[in-house]
Amino acid sequence: MKNALFFICLTLPFSTFAYSLNCAQQFNLEFHKKSFKEKVKLVRSLKKRQLKCLYDSAKKRPSPTMDFFDHVFKAPLKRVQRFIGKNGLGIYNKFEKHFFTVKTPDGPVLYGYNQSPASWFAGPGFFRVDTTPSGQMVFDYRLNFKKLIPRKQFRQWKGRTFKQVKNNHRSVVYGGGLLDDCYQLNKEILVLKAYKISKRSGKKRTFTYDAILKVPACKGSSCDQRQGRQKTLF
Fold it and tell me: What is the pTM of this model?
């Protein structure tokens, strides 16, 4: 009887059993059947509790490695690698993350920023992709990006939607000690927990949960060649 119920759960849409212990498996079964446009729609339909469930399921797996961002490390034309995102906030919950690298004496370092309807007041939300000693991938928003990201190198990247690098210390969204813990849901999706660390107490406070979907490399009509930028998919 138990096995029969489990089989029924897997054959129904993900939204029907959004909060079960096997939500990641249910989501992936539905996800892999879809076209890219349908995958974007599915990711954008996720609610806060569904995002948390996917994160809790994915964090039982090993943390992703830098190989997940293979395109941006191999990009001969220096075009940012785009991800379509959805978070659990009540407003401004659709966004993109764009990734690029910076050359250093120790090799390329991966950075990113956020493109969203909230950018006009929240800023671009630059972050660096790091791996902790325990192997956990994190996006760190707390750094001095104006010093870490040379202006000349940043401007060489095509598809970027911001002209200048900005720090986050004054941002109401990305400031206050923000970090993202990252886990891999499948070959195309990362799920994140955004949290802030109090300077006084050192305690973590969960801000929201996110899912980001890798966009295929820009080709032909999907690029705005005149401006050297890509159109966002809000």
Answer: 0.86
